[in-house]
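Researcher: I'm preparing a figure for a lab meeting and need a structural model of a single chain. I don't have an experimental structure, so a prediction will have to do for now. The sequence is pasted below. Please return the structure as tokens so I can convert it later.
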Amino acid sequence: MNEIGIKARLLLMTLIPAGILATAVGAYFSWQHLGDLQQQLLERGQLTAEHLQRPATEALLAGQPERLRSALASTLNYQDVRAVALYDADHHPLEHSGPQMFIADQPVPETPLAAGTGLQIRSGERSTRFVLPLQASPELLSDSTRTDLEPDALIGWLEVELSHGNTQLRTYQTLLSTLVLVLLGLLITSLMVSTMGRRILEPIADINQAIARISRGQLDVRLPKQGARELDDLVEGINTMAQALQSAQGELQQNVEQATEDLRQTLETIEVQNIELDMARKAAQEASRIKSEFLANMSHELRTPLNGIIGFSNLLQRTEMTTRQSEYLDTISKSAGNLLAIINEILDFSKIEAGKLTLESMPFNLRDQIEEALTILAPAAHQKQIELVSLIYSDVPLGLKGDALRLKQILSNLLSNAIKFTHVGSVCLRVMLEEENDSEATLRISVSDTGVGLSEAQQKSLFRAFSQVDNSLTRQTGGTGLGLVITKRLVEEMQGDIGLNSRPGEGSEFWLTITLNKSSQASDDLPVRPFSGIEVAVYEPLDLTRQALLHSLEGLGLQARLYASLSELDSDLNTANGQTIQLALISSGNNDSEWTERVQAAQRWAAAGLCQSILLVDTVAQPDLLDQLPPAHCAVLSRPLCLRKLYRTLTRLLSPRAGVAAESSTPLLSERRSNPDSVSILCVDDNPANLKLVETFLQEMGTRVRTATSGENALDILDEQRFDLIFMDVQMPGMDGRQTTEELRIREEISQQSATPVVALTAHALADERRKLLKCGMNDYLSKPINPEQLRDSILKWTGHDLSPGAAPKLEERPEQPADSEPRILDHDEGLRLAAGKADLAQEMLDMLMQSLPGDREQIEQSYRAGNTDALLETVHRLHGATRYCGVPELRRRCLQAETRLKEKAPCGEEIERLLEAVDRLQGSLSVL
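Model: Understood. Here is the structure written out token by token.
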């Protein structure tokens, strides 16, 4: 509507009302005229019928209806009369004139003219029919000779048909005349409106052209008067505006010239300032580079002596000392640890402030990172007798991609703060899934405690640099006040949010939400429910620890039975109700009597063959009683539990009983390295103190260690001997750690040798250090100062050996038979060696193997015939796992060969046949015995 012009609007405003009015008037008069035509038709039909009524009655009374024939024929000459017919009293036709009548079945209401005559009128599409009854009136009856008739008796019917043709023609003429008159009136109106609109629009067009010229800069244009008051007012306003614009243009030109001159001078000034700023920027970049180098060098220079102080303090604590010396040494260790933490926080804060923090994006396992963070902080929590647990919900994806080191730093800061301000109760870390799609997962991680809590004022200043919750001189907790600031900045760098909920005296909950990419390269590698169907007993009085333990056991497929006391568990094990329990997990005590009770119970159960046992202890409580536990039937695990350690311990304790395979996917490699003494390690460091420290740690773990003081020395040693693992310092004179590793990788490639894992020992704090190390060929890195736990975890990760103090002792293996020699069917000496020298245990494991052998043989045959490769591989793998704990060399080798072929998806018919033959031979040899 807005696009319609004024002229069109005037036409619409005039024609629409005029057209509606003309149409209404024409329709009204046409309706009146059509009604008159219809009324005239009815009147003509009635008059025609009444005109023929008397002659027709006389003819019927005389009994001579043919006398009416000429009258009926002459009636056809009347206007609109189409046909006339005469009927007797029973409607039998007597006389008919004209064509056959049309059907007319719609009655017409009685008209005033036909009132009292008995006239019936019916209308149809083409005609209207008038039917008039003929009665013997007394007057006509007296003149007639008929004596059999009563006065006014019905003697016949007269029917007249009038055609609608003439009436319809006049109707069309009327409608056409009305339409022509309406259109003619609208045309005249349009011409008048167009003429009047032109007189209005022409001045407006002149004004529009003038405005267009003014807009193009012709400010001297002036409009004359237009002869209408409204238009004259508009013209006067436009002329005034043009005059004002012309004056403003002159002033603007002067201002532009002045501004141009000022701008030229300003540009000259800015150019000089840009040169100065560029010089200052280059100076700032150089200062930033020097700062980065300073941070790297200071990190190394400060951490290297701290490494020696902390390491040798740990070694010195293992020697005999007086009480005062022990206190002094403990103070030195704590002071060095606090100094290291302060250095780390200041360096991290400096990198964040300088914008040098770079987040990595590498695959990692979320559960492993959380368990590592809890393991490091567990001693601090257990010293205060605080319950420390983690709960990872089952729907949380474990294989993720991001900066695992920074995520662990965030968790460590939050957990450390929670432990620091909690004096009694618990600290719990929870991980929940908020949103998930095919490529990303949004996690909510919370750390809740039962500590002192925070007021609203304390919460507002919590994330400020160098700010403490308690800034008084008598505060009980130390620190730089940078931990939470660094945590907040790291979370924000990860595009996440962080916050807290806290009330004084009710504890605190720190939470954060981050979105991480999923990664199939770091997904959980533990088997799904490997111990399904096995029933275990659980005695754990701590609520959160019990909940976390049950969650872990459920994930491993174990069925847990809870006990409220140790005596109740002991009573059940000695009755039929406890015969299905294969393992008991019991919590350690808080005093010597409780410790003695737990250890004696585990010893008693092992001696009676009731069940295996796992004792859950705090990291700071390691009494000598634990050494009395039988390693073949008992194990000790520290809280909080790590799922991988729990799985390995359960595999060691339950595999001989449940037939669960505990071997890795490379059985030959596992067999070759089943003895810790076979682990050979090369340590490379130019610092004698650090080298001696690492060497001492590794020797105490039972490994074979060689040392090198430079990169060149290390390459010479590697030319003579191969190692399972290399610990390499990064910053050394001559060939540094990166150059040495690159040279080693080139030599390995030339000689077509497998790559030896290289773990860097670095004190650098820059964010891109790990990327450089991995790029040069190193596999992993450890940050100084180094502790024994880091070395154990690294050895476990890259060699598969668990060298923790609680690991089961390994027996020295007998040299393997050559691959081409025929293995023995049954080797009792080997079975005894695998059972740690216990003859009853060796016989029990062999009996269990023989009991499951017929069912396994049948499943192997059925799966092979059905072509079900997955089921076949599963059965062969399970049987292979059982043979590794019994003296059956031939069957073990056949299982290994068949499993290898199945994993390579190669034809395995021959290997399966040999496996079945080996089963038959073993069964036959035992039946003979």
